[in-house]
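Weekly structure sync - notes
Attendees: PM, LS, DV (DV joined late)
Agenda: review two folding runs queued last week.

Item 1: First target. Sequence and structure tokens pasted below for the record.
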Amino acid sequence: MTLLLGAFLFCVPFVCASVSSLNDTNTHTLYASECPSCNTRTLWDILLTCVSTLFACTWTAIHTNIPGMDEGRVAITFRRLFLTVAALIAPELIISWATRQFFSARAATKEFNDAFGAPLGRARGRHGDVPLLSDVAEGNERPSTPKPAKFRRWTVTHGFFAWMGGFMLYIKDEPRGTLDPDKLLQFVREEFVDMPVISQAEIKDRSKGDGLSKGISLLQLAWFFVQLIARYAQNLPITLLEIDTLAVAALTCVAYGLWWKKPKDVECPYTVHWKGTADQLGQLTYEEPDLDRVGLGCLNSLIYPFISLMGMEVFVSPRAAHSRRVPSLGGY
């Protein structure tokens, strides 16, 4: 509620500036005090439409990663507020972040299916799937890889879930840290952990968003776009705030499409138990900060957010290492 009120107060100067820049073209139509029965728009009508659209395309559209261990509600809220501000100021950063997550999720899905799943080349027979002769011939030459007794073929949703911190390693019923897909694949191959058996439906059940909620947000954006097109066709004035809102909404729709299969607002990861001894476990990916890779000494803490935001490299910040979670946008 505080964020919505702040957005209202922030947008008022922009709308007032737009009113004075309409070159006396029906400026009085923005205020309906003189003609209550006229089909006109007030200042608060414009603010309400723009703020609700910005809220739909930023706060509700952002798909955050799973929180780390012992993270409080305040830290989670502030990280999401940071992502919302980044989406309003530089929405292209959100698009680059979503793009990296999308292709990383696809790569992780393919890697797990190739390692533990059935071969893709199959023919449909009377008794089910029948392997092709080429697959049988190639199978005699491939090195044998231990396959889990139970493996459900991964989808892109599984890949997103893995990269957002969906698998938490436990040692003697105590959480140790988040497993990235590379570490999970390595430990399953070495038989230190069992292959997580979780279906796409179970992952979606943990998600706080579904197709209906996402569709409603997209309808809000589409309705706002139709309103602007109608006003342009009728030669009616359009404020600068509405044009800026349309630009942000259009860019956010791209990120929304890339995140369509990503679970939203998941708070509890899937538990993976360690079967070996504690001495056999090395350092996990998100266990220690790696800002030394920046190579600028005391300036590392100031430079790494900008490098991460530009997509050049992703670093594990001290904040992320403290809670042993997947770094968010900018390495936070």
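Item 2: Second target, run right after the first with the same settings.
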Amino acid sequence: MWPKNLHCLMLLLSLSLLLPLLVNCRVLGNTKRQAEPNEDERTASYWLEQAQRQLAERLERTRVAGGGDKRVAKNIIMLMGDGLSITTMTAARILKGQHAGQSGEECQLAMEQFPYSGLSKTYCTDSQTADSACAATACLTGIKTNYGSIGQSAQGAHVESILQWAQRAGKATGIVTTTRLTDASPAATYAHVKKRTQELDIGRQLIEDAPGRNLNVILGGGLGKFASERTDGRDLLQQWHDANPDGCFARTLAELHNCSTTDHPNGHLLGVFSDSHMAYHLAASQDQPRLSDMTAAAIARLSPHSSGYFMFIEGGRIDHGHHETRAGYALDEMLEFDAAVETAVRLTDAHETLIVVTADHSHTLTMAGYANRGTSILGMDTSQRDLDGVPYSTLNYAIGKWQSLNKNNKRENPAPHLSTTSFTPSYIHAKGVHSGEDVAIFTQGPQSHLFSGVMEQNLLPHLMGYAGCLGQGDTLCKQHK
């Protein structure tokens, strides 16, 4: 016989199970911040120590599994697709295949052929969703920081990047980007500023301060930050020439090629190919080098160094295409990034070069519906319709500029307006924004197995440092002394 007070006992049991959840979780619908971040997170030491603990856990996991990779990475190449969400990867993969006359879904990107992959968590110390500044700081210095900050902790303490660790170890170094060289992601390799908008100071640091002034290769855009936009009287280009009499300076693809055949092929290389960001590939002149051209030139310049090299390469305009909510631009820039990955793989030896491909943050691009196999990824399957019978496109943004509305503010068929360079439909009317989900990591080369699973984004440089025997943390060389 069931006791008469069974319902009371069940209620008490339910409350006992729910109480821990209510204590540890925020109440849905409450938009106010419930708790301030841990104050320790504002320090560099918190993240450095955390990453070293996580590195130790991965090493122990490898030991238990019987892992035997003893190879030290002589060279390390980090390729970052700015704003490269997983949806962007999927859509670009399909577009790549469709360019080749295939259905598209079965195609593979270069990085998808790497043996190891993982995910990284991109939040910053004060922001649920990252910008490129705090995310690139995590990827390159090993700590998380505030939204908009570069190369320093949330408290303002300067931190070194893995590029500086590499220089200290006697390696050659280089940065390559399709954005301004003073933009947030490349700046995280060499600069320390509270706000990413301080680009004139970032430019000064690149030319005058270590580690920027010691870079062997600097390729990207943003000439204005070096001369015409400056208000301090500095001519940073002339300063670079004075400091590098054997160096080579390029403004076009032809000049970049000429730099490899000059009398000083081992001197430092500076290429600045636009006044601001480099043009989208779809809109660029033939004089502008592609990201793969710059990648090849950089590897050719760095490879002769007997101690090896560290290089950061960014496909920065993927992000810009997404901010404009023009998926066609974003996907084409992703394919340019894919070509750079292919170039890096082709020109290096996987036995001595660790290649890490990842993103700094995600974007709100979605791929929805049940389109037929082979449907143009930038178009639509008109059989896919909303409840009012209006067709919708395969790709959409959660937030963006164009909602495909008619004069009566009702959604209409977007098909007549879709093109490679058109706006992509979105749900909420606003400027395109980042999204906060995890981003992918792909690796090949020495110690690449360590990059699998889900990890904090700031662990990445610690894993690269371990593989290449760089920095003050644990390294493979220390393990085998």
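Discussion on item 2: Confidence is low (pLDDT under 50) at residues 6-31.
Action: LS to circulate a short write-up before next sync.
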